[in-house]
Amino acid sequence: VEFELRREIKRLQEYRAAGITNFCSARTYDHLKKTRDEERLKRTMLSEVLQYIQDSSACQQWLSRQADIDSGLSPTVPVPSNSGRRSAPPLNLTGLPGTEKLNEKEKEV
């Protein structure tokens, strides 16, 4: 019961933050939010496909990874990025809470 109440409170707080004042508007908001989320997911998937379509082996790896995700398995083969992008510089973890618990290998990852 507590979990359900917390979830409902969170949903109502989201409505308040969005300026929703009645439940009719909340239904419209939920519908539009669902539509936006679906469109965002489609754009993300399309950009992934376009990134790997140039290289057939990368494309095959991406397709197998998506099949694994769809079947509930975690992907085992990382997909190499051939987009020409540079790798990100290492993060500076100095002073962040909890970093003292990490060993050097974990900090490197």
Any overview of this molecule?
GO terms for molecular function: chromatin binding; transcription coactivator activity. It comes from Pandion haliaetus. Residues 70-109 are annotated as: Disordered. It is a single chain. By secondary structure, this protein is mainly alpha-helical. 61% of the residues lie in helices and 0% in strands. It has helices at 2-17, 23-52, 56-70, 104-108. The longest helix has 30 residues, at 23-52. The mean pLDDT is 77.
Give the C-alpha Rg. Answer: 21 Å
Q: How many separate helices? A: 4
Distance between the termini: 40 Å
Low-confidence stretches: none
- Specify the biggest β-sheet: none
Q: Helix share of residues?
A: 55-70%
Query: N-to-C SSE series?
Result: HHHH
How many extended strands?
0
Protein name: TAD2A protein
Region (Disordered): 70-109
GO molecular function: chromatin binding; transcription coactivator activity
Organism: Pandion haliaetus (Osprey)
Tell me briefly what this model is.
With 109 residues, this protein is mainly alpha-helical. The protein contains 4 helices and no strands. The protein is extended.
SSE map:
Elements: H1 2-17, H2 23-52, H3 56-70, H4 104-108
Keywords:
single chain; 109 residues; mainly alpha; 4 helices; 61% helix; extended
